[in-house]
Amino acid sequence: MTSRPTGTLAQRKRQLVADELTQAALGLLARGGFDAVTVDEIAAAAGVSKRTFFRYFASKEDVVVQFLTGLGTAMREELTSRPAPEPPSTALRHTVWRSIDACAGQTERTLRVVQLILGTPALLARFLERQAQWREELAAEVAGRLGLDPATELYPRLAAGMALTAFHTVLQRWSESDGTEDPAALTDGCFAVIAPALDAVVGE
Amino acid sequence: MTSRPTGTLAQRKRQLVADELTQAALGLLARGGFDAVTVDEIAAAAGVSKRTFFRYFASKEDVVVQFLTGLGTAMREELTSRPAPEPPSTALRHTVWRSIDACAGQTERTLRVVQLILGTPALLARFLERQAQWREELAAEVAGRLGLDPATELYPRLAAGMALTAFHTVLQRWSESDGTEDPAALTDGCFAVIAPALDAVVGE
DNA sequence: CCCTACGTGTCACCAAGTGTCAAGGATGAC
DNA sequence: GTCATCCTTGACACTTGGTGACACGTAGGG
């Protein structure tokens, strides 16, 4: 998907530095943990200054969490592209699955990042903050699909929240099993549980 | 319940300082926002040193989030005290309601704190981190109630996650409405949506 | 009266994050 | 070729969150 050189030369150079920073950060943070590594060390490992690090990432947590940033946009894209008559449980199941499937190419790397995030309170906090943003976006999209007023109806936010709870549960189980359990099966299992609530409103 | 002077004199003195710190912090943070107020200012307003502030609170966020700390323990207490044969949706509805109802005595103060948290990314992140802990605790309790193995079954974590999604949604709506909407009605409305999923497993 | 324990203030220190400015490198006009 | 310009970067200084070490004062117990 990102195989051909995208954008201008300046943009590609910028992307190169960002990748180098991410690479260095994930390598150092994997061993030693989050607190044991300083931003100066990450910057030095990438061959840039501390100041440049903060020109690419808003915070030390950001360099890890942004590794999973694509997931949020992937989810919203998938949800908007789902056919309208599809029941919410099906549409949201594909939405969550799309974000998980997006990491298929780099399984072991993603696993280490997820384990790092779920095992580090500061990173978990930032990750959950991201999820809160995604929830609002998904809720708006769900409301639009069903023609509900997001300001008065409780369903959109709850549906988005349930989907993200499923997402989080899948990541937890996948992380705890060291990648042994099948993400697809976990996703289906989670949605089998929450589907009765997601689809109950359809008759309304 | 905390009407009579509890604990030793030293404990009460400690509580006094903690209350003074919380009071000062909430007062200053309400106007000016979270970033505009420094820990030194909070400590000075409470008449102690910065070092003493950090002997009472682990972080600047903590002084705000800990104001809602009782909610987590209140929830778990309520869930454990619920009769075993009660359907999950009923037990969890009372669980969430108990934590909301616990703030009944200080409505306007709680409202300002909730609005501050939901409107400040750093505070929201810490608050969500707390909720993640609560979720694990509630999931363990749910698993115990139903005799499910929390390591293999998806239901406990999902049920706890749905309940906390309801909790969060109630707080959001209550906060956005400036306290106008009725928390009890919101709670019932949320659980009416998620109940089909919570109770569907009963037959199993 | 002394001794201990505990809470607090002071100071020093580290790391995260930001503003500012000057240097360098690429680009484009003439 | 040269100059002007823009953009990125590094260097430096600074603020703030957070921690460790130590010294001081006070209450209680021998």
TrEMBL record, chains A, B:
Annotated Pfam families: TetR_C_14 (PF17754), TetR_N (PF00440)
The HTH tetR-type domain, residue ranges: 15-75
This protein's UniProt keywords: DNA-binding, Transcription, Transcription regulation
Keyword hit for Ligase: no
Gene3D superfamilies membership: Homeodomain-like (1.10.10.60), Tetracycline Repressor, domain 2 (1.10.357.10)
Regions recorded as binding DNA: 38-57
Keyword check for DNA-binding: yes
Protein name as catalogued: TetR family transcriptional regulator
The species this protein was found in: Streptomyces nogalater
